[in-house]
Amino acid sequence: MSDNTLKAVLRQHAENEFAHELAALREADTHARPPNWVLSPWAVRTYLLGGKLDGGIEISPKYIGNARLMEIAISTLATDRALLLYGLPGTAKSWVSEHLAAAISGRSTLIVQGTAGTGEETMRYNWNYAQLIAKGPSHDALIASPIMHAMQHGLIARVEELTRIPADVQDTLITILSEKMLPIPELNTECQAQKGFNLIATANNRDKGVNELSSALKRRFNTVILPIPDTLDEEAAIVDRRVASLGRALELPAEKPALAEIRRIVTIFRELRSGVTADGKTKLKIPTGTLSTAEAISVVGSGMALAAHFGDGSLTARDIASGIIGAVIKDPVQDSVVWKEYLETVVKERSDWKDLYRACREAL
Q: What homologous superfamily does CATH list for 3-225?
């Protein structure tokens, strides 16, 4: 893909967006690499958590949080165990999955997106029906799934939202993960996984329509639970970094939002998630939504677009008010009560939040 094409893409794959960092790490990497890995576990860790290489090259952090969790995830993928990234929606599971695959295999695109309609053929293989009718079952007529392709070439495959997939289709993975082999009975043969193959799955237990994993499938995974960021500063830093990246990708002609504005949004989300104000003095009702870090990023991004195209380019309370309300009020009855009570008892009482209170009242 040419540089001009990459610049026109709305969202680049991790291996393209951070190609310069991955190249620098490959050059500096002198540690032992597992079979078919592009980088060593040490270099993958540096890529995820950030650092400075000899020569002064800065590697930006892709994950801000508990470093030990990333070390466990990386070391799991160096074994014969698959990795399950588990947690609430918006805790960077897909983000971490993508960057792990990019750093280990140099390719993050071998992905199955889990939905209620995902079938076995999406996990295993499909057929070119024109060739199938003309010549019958053959290797030429077989269409490899992303997982099968990863097995054939010793790469990392990804399955997003594993618990959204019907239980009988989920269990297609049991043989792949335990035997490292995919039977192809139509051809009386099999696809054996090459060294370097592994699988990263993501799942959460909060969405409607979740299908629990069978005990047999759970045993094939090493589970790493990604938590909500521990502190306000940590979560605000994540939002700040991701929003900056989003603004560049969308080429928004807006100023970078002030960290103080981001902190207000994150504070609101954290207080409503926990059911208590930051000072611990006021108990709050909890809305039905998750109010994740990802939603905070979305609120700031939407506000930047409003500021850029319908304001002076500077993010204001008026630009973020509707986004906050939309994120909080998922149930128009129950969540409206929660939000109005929070607005009147918390936002209104904070002297430096008067502009946000007025903007939110106008937006209701």
A: P-loop containing nucleotide triphosphate hydrolases (3.40.50.300)
